[in-house]
Amino acid sequence: MNAENPLIVQSNRSLLLEVDHPRFKETRDAIGVFAHLEKSPEYVHTYSITPLSLWNAASLGLRPHDVLATLERYSRYPLPQNIVEEVPELMGRFGRVVLEGERGSLLLRSSDRELISNLSRHPKLAPLLGEYHDDNAIEVDPGHRGVLKQVLIGLGYPAHDRAGYVDGEPFEIRLRETSASGEPFQLRQYQRQAAESFVGSKGAVEGSGVLVLPCGAGKTIVGLHAMSLLKRKTLILVTSITAARQWRREIADKTTISDTEVGEYSGESKDVRPVTLATYQILTYRKSKTGPFEHYDIFNRENWGLIIYDEVHLLPAPVFKFTAELQARRRLGLTATLVREDGHEDDVFALIGPKKFDVPWKDLERQGWIATARCVEIRVDLPHGEKLQYLSLPARKQIRLAYENPHKIPVVREIIEQHAGDQILIIGQYLSQIDKFAMEFGAPVVTGATPNQKRDELYDRFRRGELKMLVLSKVGNFAVDLPDANVAIQISGSFGSRQEEAQRLGRILRPKAQGEQATFYSIVTRETKELDFAMKRQLFLTEQGYAYEIRYREFD
């Protein structure tokens, strides 16, 4: 106990961290490995220790002793007794049951005979299990491997999957030392560490999991390095055609893979090659809500040795069904945040794999690998007449009125004037709103309805500096490689989505040639639901060490 420490550990597994304390940053970085940020008002941030946060910590090699020692080091008061007991109990559940391969069979094993016996009687598990192999192991149909892991994590006993993987068909993949564009190419240390932590040591039976790196840190490069280490046919699942073509450009520029060896499987093309890029949208397509997923066979059409899930935090829920059936293939999830607004974090852990590597955003900023960023929230009132109207509307119409506040236009105009000569992205939620801003400022618009050829043309002109401003719908949230963008102005968003806030900041985090700072503006309507959503949206970035500067813009 130390009365001068910044942390209060409570018996409900919540942690209260004093923001103005000189050891705030040190403590935040230490507890962020095993706790989730829940609230981040001005003076005290609230974290929670959850089973999933502890299991992810355990998957990274932390032990209960490490967690408790960290809590004791920073806690102002003695640790509650239940915390001292619950942390080892919860962390100890990771790996209490293990999936193993043995001479072609799949076994669910535990050193605790009573536990394996009790689990075998559970009504959700019993149909998935076969005969006892011995007192500590039960045979499992390999086709049930994924569903079994989903059920086990739901019961609070995440399985440590050590059953191994099919090798997949060999395919030679090497990284270039000089990119095709003529620039020297060398992996950054953290990119090398991330890929190698996923692949594991030679002969290791593990090799599936999630790598967490900030937007702009080169997740695509990490994926390419993992491919070069495994040297197997690879299926890469992406969020959009734009993302697929970005991967294709990077493959052509930084690997020895020829263009004829890369296929695209999307709404526009059905070309399967040794390295194939497929969109989540095409995989989840079916003619009716009850009809079959017509493109599911791509998973088994080739003998894949690796499946990469790009932006795994956006993985559509139907794809979890496919992933449950693909447990014999190595799976790599790439993401900037494990936050999912649909609550499927447990499924990502069970079916893609545990977190294998995580690097704080601010660490890479300090090292110069991503741009330094300043976050500014500008709060504005509704015009007087609309403020009166707001109170009489149903909730969804209130939200839209707040998002489309006309006072945002002059605020954005002032920001554009302050950043004359910069590369500016204006990002919004509602098509009518972004059309209005595009017309007001004479800037091109990119939405989901923009043809891909036109979209690529606008992005290329922006990259070359011919366009200084783009107005984007939600298509600008991810997989848009615009490295020179250094100002983002958020005029509306998807309610309280933390992942969207992170993705939008990520659009301007590519390191700048001159080392200049990036600025992320959010324009928010005061005394409305939009302000409540803004506070929630900022949680993830606050956990990463970003502080929001709050400004007020008054109107007569």
Provide a short characterization of the protein structure.
With 556 residues, this protein is an alpha/beta fold.
Q: What would you report as the Rg, rounded to the nearest angstrom?
A: 25 Å
Largest sheet: 7 strands, parallel
Mean pLDDT: 89
Shape: globular
CATH homologous superfamily of the largest domain - what is it? P-loop containing nucleotide triphosphate hydrolases
What's the CATH topology label of the largest domain?
Answer: Rossmann fold
The strand order across the widest sheet is 12-13-11-14-15-10-16
**Class by alpha and beta content:** alpha/beta
Residues in helices, as a percent range: 25-40%
Tally of strands: 23
Number of H- or I-type helical stretches? 22
Q: At CATH's second level, what is the architecture of the largest domain?
A: 3-Layer(aba) Sandwich
Number of domains: 4
